[in-house]
Amino acid sequence: MENEKKLKKLQKFWSGKKIFITGHTGFKGTWLCIMLNLLKSEIYGYSLNPKRKSLFNESKIHNFLKSNTFSDINNISLLKKKLKLSKPQIVFHLAAQSLVLKSYENPVETFRTNIMGTVNLLNCIRKVNTIKSVVIVTTDKVYKVDKKNKIFNELDILGGSEPYSASKVGAELATESFIKSFFQKTHLKNKISTARSGNVIGGGDYSKNRLIPDIFRAIENKKKLIIRNPNSIRPWQHILDTLNGYIILAEKITKYKRKYSGAWNFGPNYRNIKTVELIAKKIKLNWYKKTKSKIIIRKNKDYEESKSIRLNCNKAKKYLKWSPKLNIDNAIKYTIDWHNNNKLFNNSYNQCIEQIKSFEKIK
User: Fold this and answer.
1) Which residues touch 233 (CB under 8 Å, ≥6 apart)?
2) Which of 99, 139, 95, 155 is nearest to 120 (CA)?
């Protein structure tokens, strides 16, 4: 009963809202589509074709999308056309090249997608008068990491030493530039924000070179798992905590005149900020005790990543009344339960719906 009340309260705002989502075929994008469909929104997706093995294909969410466009974010004419046709009220920009190692392999694609893709979207929305709010999703890796092991808040200096983080810094700077240069005297004044979230885990992530999917593949195939940068500290959190933050932010920007424009951190509580090695061992030892796969610690000498990233989320807690619901153990349990139940019942969409409803019960 309590769960139904919470969903109805959310539906009161989101029901019937026209939502334009870039990157809707990705891991985060698919979960966001499923959440918003549960809230009875009208969803218009714009993204690259999904990979064959993907949550998007497994969950068959194309069945409820109002529009499902497969194209590059740098196809400006088509992007502009789809935005004008859909007449959205809220835009979530998730389209990105989101893998650190891939950014080393193809830096040009990474910079073009993450910076110019964001610029293209911002330029296209300038004349779409129906839009009430925009959330640009970046990353926790936009901060300039030093040896002080500090906890970053939204006012800290930005900086990226490798292609992925640098491209996301570029997206942040481009967004700030457009806000100041083009939106101060328009309907989108104080209506555009960026969301910086930590390392997201959850069911249906099949990406290569991501810790959790790599662990699952190693376990299922009974193969060795080589962990790069085992001592790196990351703000691990479940995807539902992250997307809950995005949804609350978008609703606040849309409903109120108060200034919600700018950057927002969404991360776990400090006690849930763990090393890569500890997360891997938690999964193997706590839930997969009988597995024959071996975890091998081998430092990656080819590519450098930030050693420690910790987020201060006090701003979101104070002004958005958002806070993470799942600690690291529960986040891992949700992820493994989704994976196991999906193998058993072969219904990705239902697994997502059940976990969303379970999540909403948590106070």
Assistant:
1) 273, 274, 275, 307, 308, 309, 310
2) 95
The structure's pTM equals 0.93
Give residues with Cβ within 8 angstroms of 242, minimum separation 6: 28, 197, 198, 200, 266
Structure tokens at 306: 């930030």
Q: What is the pLDDT along the chain (363 residues), one digit of tens a residue?
A: 556 666 778 889 999 999 999 999 999 999 999 999 999 999 999 999 999 999 999 999 999 999 999 999 999 999 999 999 999 999 999 999 988 889 999 999 999 999 999 999 999 999 899 999 999 999 999 999 876 668 999 999 999 889 999 999 999 999 999 999 999 999 999 999 999 998 899 999 998 878 888 888 877 777 777 777 777 878 889 999 999 999 999 999 999 977 798 999 999 988 777 788 888 877 776 555 555 555 565 555 555 555 678 899 999 999 999 999 999 989 999 999 999 898 888 899 999 999 999 999 887
294: amino acid identity, one letter: K
How far apart, in whole angstroms, are the C-alpha atoms of residue 363 and residue 346?
30
Q: Which residue has the tokens 């570029």?
A: 170
**Contact between residue 304 and residue 162 where contact means Cβ atoms under 8 Å apart:** yes
CA 115 to the chain's CA centroid: 17
Positive or negative: CA dihedral 69, 74, 76, 80 = positive
Six-digit token string for 59: 């969950």
Give the residue among 123, 129, 138, 51 at the shortest CA–CA distance from 92: 138
CB atoms within 10 A of CB 159: 14
Instruction: Quote the CA–CA distance of 77 and 57 in Å, as a whole number.
Output: 27
Cβ neighbourhood burial of 352 (10 Å; 0-12, 13-18, 19+): buried
Strand ranges across the sheet with 273-275: 199-201, 233-238, 273-275
